Amino acid sequence: MRRALRIFVVVAVAALSLALPDFCTAPAAAAPPGTAARMTAAQPTTPTAAPAPGMPAEQAVPDPSTWSFAASLYAYVLPDDDSFLLPVVYADRDWLHLEARYNYEAMDSASLWGGWCFATGSTVTLEAIPMLGFVFGDTSGIAPGLEFSLGWRQFELYSESEYVFDLDDSEANFFYAWSELTYAPKDWLAFGLAAQRTRAYETDVDVQRGLLLELSRRPGSLRGYLFNFDRDEAFGIIAAGWEF
Question: Cα(115)–Cα(38) distance, rounded to whole angstroms?
Answer without folding.
Answer: 14
